[in-house]
Specification:
This protein has a domain of 107 residues: Aminopeptidase. The longest helix is centred in the middle third of the chain and has 18 residues. Strands 1, 2, 3, 4, 5, 6, 7 and 8 form an eight-stranded mixed beta sheet that branches. Strand 7 and strand 8 form a beta hairpin. Helices cover 34% and strands 33% of the residues. The chain has five helices and eight strands, in the order βαααβββαβαβββ. With 154 residues, the protein is of the alpha+beta class. It is globular and about 35 Å long.
């Protein structure tokens, strides 16, 4: 089944919330101390281009990019996946690279951090071409997070 990339709004959040993958909950709620509902609402409403990936009627992930620094053209890519991502991995992966390339039309550089425990996300980010720095303590609890970056090719 093919994936659809559709707009996501704050009204979608209550339906997506119970489906969020445990690794994403651990990263956002446990390590960063932010309630998942707040993190998801903020991400959706503060993004330039918040979307959801839907396969066979199931939300597989929500993602977007926000402005970190307008002068330096730096964007913050983010993605929160659901329990359906593994079942629809091929369809999910097929739409990821074009969406990241779209982010690079809005920003020269993409940067964010990923929980060092979130091995599936790290594998996926490497597949997308992101480069990683050494893990450093991040967030209020100081959990190890890897900074990751991707630059627009000129």
């Amino acid at each position: 089944m093919a994936a659809e990339v559709l707009p996501v709004t704050a009204e979608d959040v209550p339906d997506i919330l119970p489906l969020v993958r445990q690794a994403d909950i651990d990263e956002i709620t446990e390590a960063l101390g932010i309630p998942m509902e707040e993190a998801l609402l903020d991400a959706v409403t503060d993004s330039l281009n918040a979307k959801k990936i839907v396969v066979d009627g199931q939300v597989v992930a929500v993602f977007g990019d926000a402005i970190h620094n307008i002068l330096g053209s730096i964007g913050i890519p983010w993605l929160i996946s659901t329990v359906h991502v593994e079942r629809h991995a091929r369809a999910f992966l097929k739409v990821c690279k074009p969406e990241v390339q779209g982010m690079l039309t809005r920003h020269n550089h993409l940067i964010n951090y990923v929980d060092a425990r979130n091995t599936a996300a790290i594998r996926w980010l490497k597949w997308l071409g992101f480069e990683f720095g050494p893990a450093t303590p991040y967030g209020p609890k100081g959990f190890p997070f890897y900074p990751f970056t991707l630059n627009r090719e000129n």
